[in-house]
Each structure stands twice: as C-alpha cells, then as structure tokens.
Amino acid sequence: MVSQEAEKKIVELQTLEQNLQLFALQKQKFQTSLNEIENALEDLKTAKGETFKIIGNVMVAVNRDQLVKELNEKKSVLELRIKNIENQEEKFKEKAAKLQSEVMEKLKNEKK
Asked: Which residue, of 2, 17, 30, 58, is most buried by count of CB atoms within 10 Å of its CB?
C-alpha cells in the first residue's frame, strides 16, 4: 500500500507533467506564429508594389515600413514568450525530476 505522502507526491508529479505538456503546446503555437512572421518579413524584402494586411475578413493596403515594424514588434513579443516558456519548462522539469526521485525513494522505503 502506498502512503498518503507518496500518493500526494505522485499527484503533484502528474500535475507537473500535465503543465509541461501545456507548455509544449503553447511553445509550439508561438513557434508556428514566429515562423509565419519570419516568412512574411522575408517576403516583404522581395515584394514589389503595394503591401496588404488581412484584418478579420478584409484585406487592407498598408504602408510597407509600418507593416515591417509591426511584424518585428510581434516577432520580439513571440521570442520573449518562447524564452519565458522555455525557462518555466526548465524549472518544471527540474522540479519533476526531484519529485520523481523522492517518490521512487519513498516507494522503495515502503517496500522494505
């Protein structure tokens, strides 16, 4: 039989692992957006003529320099968010590893 303390740590470990999965999904979403922005910025370097931006269901003509500035700002925000998620992921992984070793130790001691 597993002690209540070990059970509590196991539940906490499961919660940490669920959070890690959520971080991975968020990070993937942000990286996809970042790739789209980087591709748009590359396309803007070589594009000739008018530039357009989609707002909702409407395509609107915009100033190229303003669009580049806006995309670079979004890119910076996404890079910061990704970095923050990576930092949180690292902390959660360390905590999960520590918790996992504690659980294993408790389970080993309970079998004795």
From this structure: 30
What is the value of pTM for the model shown? 0.83
Domain count along the chain: 1
User: CB–CB of 110/3 below 8 Å?
Assistant: yes
Which of helix, strand or coil describes residue 22?
A: helix
- Residue pair 51/44 in contact (Cβ under 8 Å)? The answer is yes
**SS3 call for 100:** helix
Asked if residues 107 and 59 have their Cβ atoms less than 8 Å apart, the reply is no
pLDDT at 95: 94
Q: Which amino acid is at 15?
A: T
Q: Look up residue 110 and give its amino acid.
A: E
Helix (H) or strand (E) holding 81: helix 64-111
Q: Which domain holds residue 24?
A: 4-111
